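Box 3.1. Reading complex inputs
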Amino acid sequence: MMNKEHLSKKTFPWAHVIGYVGSIVLTVLALWFTVKAPLSQGSIITILLALAILQILIQLIFFMHITESRGPAYHSIAIALGFLFTFAVVAGSLWVMTFNSQVQ
Amino acid sequence: MINQIVEYLRNADPLIQMSAVAAVLTLLGIIFALTYFKKWGWLWREWITTVDHKKIGIMYLICALLMLFRGGVDALLMRTQLAFPNMNFLDSQHYNEIFSTHGTIMILFVAMPLIFAMMNIAVPLQIGARDVAFPFLNAVSFWLFFFGALLFNLSFILGGSPDAGWVSYPPLAELSHSPGPGINYYVLSLQISGIGSIATGINFIVTILKMRAPGMTLMKMPLFCWSVLASCIVIIFAFPALTVALALLGMDRIFGTHFFTMLHGGNPMMYVNLFWVWGHPEVYIAILPVYGILSEVVSTFSRKRIFGYKSMVASLMLISVISYFVWVHHFFTMGAGPGVNSFFAVASMAVGIPTGVKVFNWLFTMFRGRIRLTLPMLWSLTFIPCFAVGGATGIMLASAPADYQFHNSYFVIAHFHQTLIGGAVFGLLAGMYYWWPKMFGFKLNETLGKWAFWFFNIGFYVCFMPQYALGFMGMTRRVYTYPAETGWGTLNFVSTIGAYLMGIGFLFIVVQILYSIRYGERDTTGDPWDGRTLEWSLPSPVPHYNFAQIPTVNERDAWWEMKQQRKEGILPPTKEPLKPIHMPNNSSLPFFMGLAFFVAGFGLVFNQFIIATVGLIGVVVCMLWRSLEKDTGHWISVDEIKQMEAS
C-alpha cells in the first residue's frame, strides 16, 4: 500500500482524468436524452437510471478509491449501509408521497 | 439592509431592544477585559487557532452551556406567558419567534455541541490515540458550528428571529407567509453548522476505525466509543437530507424557485418528508452517545464490568440502522395511506426493543455492584426511569391511530422533552461531571451539584407531567394564550413553577462551576473515580500529545486490568524508551473559513449578493490556501516529553 501511494504521487493521475472525462460524458448524455431524444418518457427514465448507476460506479472507483484498502475493508460496509439508506429514503419517500396522486 | 435593521429595532418589543443593548454591553465588556488583562494573544494562540481535540471539546462545551442559557431563557419567557390565562407578557409574534428559536437552539446548538464536546474530550483518550484522524478538519467543524450559532443568535437583534417553528414548514416558512429575514437566518445558520456536523461524523468514524491503540480490537473498545461510532454513522447518512431540504427551501426564498410552494408543481409535503428523514435520526444522534456515557458511568461507579457488552454493541448498531426507518411517525396525520402508517408505526416501536436491552443491561450492571452515588451516577440513575417513561409515551405516539388524538397537542411536547431532557440532557450532564476532572484537573463541588440535581429533577417533573394532562385536555402546542374557560390555567401555572425550578437548577450548576474553579478538589492522580478505561491512565489535565507512549491493550477495560495486574504484583512490561512525537500544527485557517462562511451567510440572509459573494470567495481562498500549504506538523523532542511528564 505504501508503495502504491508512493507510485501514485509520481505518475500522472490517469485514473482521475478517466473518471473526470467519464463523469462529464455521462452527464452530457443524460442532459441530451432528457432534452433532445425522441423517446417515450418511460424509456428515457430507464436510460437515465442506467446512466446514474454508471455515474455512481465511476465516482466510487476513480475518485473514492473503493478498490483500495489498508486493513479491514470497513468502507465496503459503509457503502452497503449507504445503499440501504439511500434506498430507504428514495423508495420510502416515493411510497409516503403516493397519496399525493390521489389528492390531485 | 442597514435600514431594514434600524427599522426593525425601532419597532421591536422593548424586551428585544433591551437585549440588544445588553448584547452590545456584553461584547464591549469582553473586549475591554481581554484588552485590560492582555489576553488577546493567549486567546488567539491557545484557543482560536488550536487543533487539539481536548481544547476543541472544551470550546464546544462552553458554547453549549451558553446556548443552554439562551434556550433556557426562551423557555422561561414562554412559560411565563402561559402561566395564566389571557396573559399579556409577550405578543403573538414575539412568542412565535421564541418557541422557534428555543427548539432550534436546544437541538442544534445545545445537544449537538454537547455531544461533540464529549466525543472530542473522551474518544481519542479512550482508544489510546494522540488526536483525532483529521485535527484540522476538527477545528473547521468547530468554527462552522460556532459561526452558525452566532448567525442564528444575531437574528433577534438584527432583523427578526425565525418564527415558523423549529421545523420551519412551508408554506409558513415561504416568502409569501414569512417575508422578513427570520427564516433566512434559520436556513443559513443550520446549513453552515450542518456542514461542520457532517465533517465531525466522518472524522470520528475514521478516528475510531483507524486510530485505536495496538491490541484494541473493536470488541475491546469502550462502549462510549461504540456509541459515538453508531451516532456518527447516523450523522453522515442523516445530515445530507437536512442539507438538501434547507438548500431547496433557501432557493425558494432567495432565488424564487418553487420546490415547496404549490406553484409550478412544488409540494410543501416534500419538505416535511425530507426534514424528518433527517429529523428523526437526529434525536438518535443525540441519544446514542448518551447510552455510551451511561454505560461508562454505571460500570465505573458500580465497580463492575458492564453486563452484556456484546448485546450493548449489537443494540447500538441496530438502533443506528432502525432509526432510519421511522421518520414518518412525525406526520402520520399528513394523509398517507394505512400501509405507510402501519409500516412506520411498527418500525418506530421496534426501536424500543434494543433500547430495552440497554436499560436492563445497566440495571444488571448495578445489581450487586458496589455503587457510589457521585454526581455522574446520580444523573445516570435518574436518566433510567425518566427515559423509560419517555419511551413509553413514545410508543403511545408511535401507534398511528392514537397519534391522530395526540397530534400537535401538549402530550407531544411533554413526550419529547422527557426523552430529550430526561435522556440527552441528563446523560450529557452525567458525562460532563464524569469527564470534568479529566478536562480541567479539578472536581466539581458535590454539594452544590446535588442542589442543582434536585432542583432540576423535581423541576423537570413538575414542569412536564402537567403537560401530558394538558395534552389530553385539548391544549395544542404553539398557542400563545388561552381563555380561562378552557380550565388549563392551574396545570399551566404548575408547569411554569417547574420551569423556574429547572432554571434555579441551572443557576446552581453555574455557581458550582464558578465555585469549583477556585475551591474545587484538585485531581492530582489523574484517576479520581477509580476508572476503567484508558483516559484515566493519563494525568489531568492531559498533556497535548495525550500518551507519551501509546499503550498496548489486552483486555476490554484496559486501565482497570492494568491496575489489577499491578495489585497482584505483575509489573507492566518494561517500557520502550521515549520517542519524539509528531503533532499537527495550529492553524488560523479554520477560524477564517468559519468567518468567511458567516459573511456569506449574513449576505444571503438580507439578499445582499455582493457581501455573499465576498464571503464565498473567502471560503474558496481558504480552501485553496489549505490545499497548497505544505504543513507537515512538528516534532516534540524526547527532552520536552520528559519535562512535561515530570511536571
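In summary: Chain A touches chain B through 18 residues (CB under 8 Å).
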